[in-house]
Amino acid sequence: MSDPESVNEDGAAASAKPPRKGNGLARIAMLLITALCFAYLYYRLNGAAIREGLTLVQYMTQVFATVNWIPWLLVMITYSLFYFTIDTLVVTKALNWFVKEIKYKDILPIRASSYIISIFNEQIGKGAMALYLNKRDQVPGWEVASVMFFIMFCEVFYLLVWATIGYFVGGSALPEVFGLIPYIAAGAAIFLILWIAYFRGILLPNNKLREREVFHAFRQAKPWHYGAFFMLRSPALIAAIVVYTVALNLFGVEASFATLFPILPVIFFAAAVPTPMRAAAITFWVVLFPDNEGQMAAFGFVQHNFFILFNAAIGLLFLPRANRELFGERNASTKI
Question: Would you give the DSSP letter of residue 220?
């Protein structure tokens, strides 16, 4: 267990610590990845423009002009709202499993408000949720942080499971590198079994690492919790496959559900990399659809950034309620 005096409830002690060298290295790595992504995108797009006898600006203007924007906007707004309801349900269930009973409607303003911060980094957004629950519901910050860690851990396996299912559905049409997915999935399955056995006390029963506060949720988690997470989160990905397929066609790129089945989870992995404007995810679209460089660059840029910005707009709608709950009187009305 960590020293309880090292971090107070408001996290003041943690924030007072000097920045670690590792944080600087992470920022340098992020900037390097971003630079490489944008250099690659410029190379591909400029090459496509030259082949068309156009400047890069003219080429991209032409691409954007051919998009069916109104249907795309309606599809994306619907999907974003659906994702918000599923995402909030997952967070609510995880908190109820491992911390305390909190109603779904009371998690809505927390999750929505965290989307504003998630514009910059999804992990920081989850950290803001921990602070919010600590202040509003007096839930120890380390317990909420542990639940957020559990959610992020499960999301990796959830995406990998869907990528594996998608590979066996449409793997023959995928780039050769996707042939690694079954091997990665097999290794991940073995790791997950050992992970669960360790936190259930079956593997290395005398080891004390599992007793640390950050592993609170994992100590309580039973195998069915991992399966339940997958089932709760999956409707969002299934909807995403449908929505992204429709959206691609609205951008003038022929795509099928079978094509996106294994690709989308991998791209969502890339979207989790904290690069400006989701540069890694945009680059993946161009790499995976090399015959439509301009459409895919436009699609990736608009698709991912609209999603995070619209979610932030949802957060702004809930922000007055969130502020009342954090800074107003405890018994104040929570109606929006």
Answer: H
